[in-house]
Design brief:
- The protein is mostly helical.
- The chain has one domain (about 5-65).
- It is built from 5 helices and no strands.
- The protein has helices spanning about 5-20, 25-30, 35-40, 45, 50-65.
- Helix 1 packs across helix 2 and helix 1 (about 5-20) crosses helix 5 (about 50-65).
């Protein structure tokens, strides 16, 4: 798996833990709002950020797409 792919999985695991969700719930949420693509494409910017920032960034990304 690529470093971007590994990072995407890492972000999903961190999000799951932070939000007390199941893996299935996170997968469905990330698929519905295309978070997988977002995290993968923003790897260069996100991989140097802390876990808290990444979770907040994903939340902002999802919120912007719920309209």
């Amino acid at each position: 798996m690529s470093k971007e792919g590994n990072f995407t999985v890492y972000c999903a695991e961190q999000y799951k833990t932070a939000k007390n969700m199941t893996g299935k719930e996170v997968a469905e949420l990330f698929t519905r709002y295309r978070v997988w693509d977002y995290v993968y494409s923003c790897f260069e910017a996100l991989h140097t950020a802390g876990d808290k920032y990444i979770i907040e960034d994903i939340d902002l990304y999802i919120s912007a797409r719920q309209i």
